Amino acid sequence: MAISETRVRPPEFIEAAGKTYLEDLSSAVGDFKGADLSKVYGAQNVAGLDPLQQQAIKELQSGIGAYEPYIQAAGAATGPTGYQQFMSPYQQDVINQTLSEYDLQAQKGLGNISQSAIASGAFGGAREGVAQAEYMSNSDRNRAALNAQLLGQGFTQANQLAQNQFSNQMNLAQNVPALQGQQVAGLTTLGGALQAQRQNELTANQQLNIQNLNQPLTAAQQYGSGVTQLIAGYPGKSIQEQTPNPSGLQSLISAGSGLAGIYRTLNPVQKTA
Predict the structure, then answer these.
(1) Is the dihedral of CA 174, 177, 182, 185 positive or negative?
(2) Distance (Å, rounded) from C-alpha 134 to C-alpha 219?
(3) Segments making up each domain of the chain, as ranges
(4) CA 16, 22, 23, 27: dihedral to nearest 10 degrees?
(5) Which residues contact residue 32 at a Cβ distance below 8 angstroms, ignoring those fewer than 6 apart?
(6) What is the pTM assigned to this prediction?
(7) 121-163: per-residue pLDDT in tens?
């Protein structure tokens, strides 16, 4: 049995706008479904380590135990024989030359004793022999003391150099890691800033891609909102139509939301008995 219906149709320009909206919305939904979302959401959007950060990691790894060579060098300088590496290779030559000069002067002194004995008429006597023996004893003792003094000076100088070496190496053992740490900190800070900038760029690009992807849908929705406002602002024209009873399937479809809601807005129905 046919049903007599009174349809209130909007002005033609509003109907045309509504159809355009439905077409645009359908096209936008189709484009959205067909878009490769992996390029937008599945792309690499986390900034990797900056080269400066990678360099900082390598510097930090290479710096582990960097103090050890200096500790070893410091220990070698203060060991039982540590001073020997600082002994002058020319020390013995200096000692030999000094003692040779001493011996020459000693011979002169011995000659002076003989000349004094001759002058006093005691040459070859017991008194000359005693004087010479006493002189030689003192000379030998002084010679030994001179030799010990020269050796002691060389040892003292070498020992002082060894102590200096120990202090220098210990300072390096402390300062080298500290300086390396400062360098690593600088590389990390600068690299982190560059990484953050790169992350901002990746995030901005992703947001732009999402915006571009959603733009057709957004535009269609805005257009549909305007069409709805037009429909509400213009009175429709009543038209009598005879339509057959809707099937069950048609009833289910017309009960939907979204696009069907727009359809019902464009085609309001008033039933009469």
Answers:
(1) negative
(2) 125
(3) 35-235
(4) 160
(5) 213, 214, 216, 217
(6) 0.46
(7) 656 667 767 777 888 888 889 999 999 999 899 888 988 888 8
